[in-house]
Model the fold of this input.
Amino acid sequence: MSDSRLRRVAVLVLEGAKPLDVGIPAQVFTTRASMPYEVRLCGAAPGLVSGGDGLSYHVAHGLEALAWADLVFIPGYRFPDREDPPNAVVEALVAAHGRGARLAAISTGAFALAATGLLDGRRATTHWHYTRALTAKHPLVRVDENVLFVDEGSVLTSAGAASGIDLCLHILRGDLGVAASNHAAARRLVAAPYRSGGQAQYVPRSVPEPLGERFAATREWALHRLDEPLTLDVLARQAAVSPRTFSRRFVEETGYTPMQWVMRARIDLARELLERSERGVEQIATDVGLGTGANLRTHFQRILGTTPSEYRRTFTRGE
Done:
């Protein structure tokens, strides 16, 4: 881990807050020995907040939590297109951002974030059902309805509730590295360790369930064989479908072509080995199926914008 300082996370619970949207960041970042985060649930004021779907929340903190936090999550809420959050909430979000906090909206929480003006001129997303409403209400926001989440640096947005998991894991990966993110995904959430932020959030034609399960099994099979040759034909054969069918359905499920997915899986494994082992770049290149250190460096730079050596230094400076 490159930075062991405690990171402060506030989850802002607005009137009509959606239970999953509140629960996802609260669970992912909950305070525990393995994760340097402290989480506080807050509202416009301390006390009872009426939520959506028949639930209410008792929050211990008011807007002072936003002045305390390094990272603020804004869960989705009911009827976001009808009226903006209270002025005090909007002002507190703007002040938190000005102080250097990251603001991350889940689903329709994007409307509250857009009300601050901080999304003007930037890409953003929200639940597909509300993308047109967000565009109409905030025309300066560059709304992208075909992605799971958007990272604009200090402001982040995600699509529907499940995409909040993808956004949280994306933030974890950036803060603590791929090993911590994969641990949280696989062991705590029992979720896919990564999905493309550029994956379409809504596919009109459903993927037949047995084939979806088969592809998931093929991805799991591939993750245990990244050091072996993994071509489109090999993967399609493992899934027992034609390469053409495999390629088309794979993109629908993951947002990547099969070979893009394999390459990113290899780079993620390389990141984990750089974080957690003393192996040299040449050995890691062999371990992840990229053959040579030069090949690993090329793809590492292309995908992550840095070198394996610099990445490793980032995760050893704080030790």
